[in-house]
Input
Amino acid sequence: MNADITERRKETLVNMCDERARMLQDQFNVSMNHVHSLAILVSTFHHGKQPSAIDQKIFAEYTARTSFERPLMSGVAYALRVLHSEREEFEKQHGWKIKKMETEYQSLVKDDYNPEKLDPSPVQDEYAPVIFSQETVSHIVSIDMMSGKEDRENILRARATGKGVLTSPFHLLKSNHLGVVLTFAVYNTNLPPNATAEERIKATVGYLGASFDVPSLVEKLLHQLASKQTVVVNLYDTTNVSAPIRMYGPDVAGAREIHISYVDFGDPTRKHEMHCRFKHKP
Ligand code: WA2
Output
């Protein structure tokens, strides 16, 4: 009898956790597909048209009006690939300098954060300054995305693979939350699926990226399910099995009776898990 109740309770937890993990995964997947199609939009109407049909105003309007298609993204932006030999001309044309990303966590969350005050990017072989942004992430315009460790790794992996790639969780600019960035490379030709990494790198013209502010967007998603009184949900990046990173939820170290549901965010090099437990003992 008692065993029966325990068994049913366990089954309920499994179902609730799997449902939440699946919802998060599906919303991420549709958001990712839409970011991919934005990369193709920029390729077609910015790089594929002379003169370009996209400027900051059009990009901001289009991305705001289509934000419902990307429920898990807090903002999208486009960074252009600029070689060092092109830097001077690029800066003159845009009327601003390519800036270095400020990665000191404290300076990112302080209230007087102001991209105008950032230092110019030091000399590099190439840069990835943001030229178009959704209004929600306008603070990253003019920043060299290759000057941030996580963004840089994502850019290099995205352009070599042609796939959508995800960073590890890190502190996003102007946010006190952990987040992840999703990046798609934009190429100057329609590359075949079997193109080599060198062919891809050579054809790269820019990077379309989206930021996923994990705590606020997962909270919003789970809120829609009206069962927050019952179940405690945590999301972890478990790419490094011996050092999981808690991306969402309270510190529940040593909690018993948890159920683990796997979440696939579409980048096979990253692993994520949702851990669920009941709030109250039986
Ligand atoms: N977007 C928003 N906030 C951030 C961030 C980012 N990266 N990096 C740190 N905080 C334009 O991959 C190219 C977006 C990077 C794309």
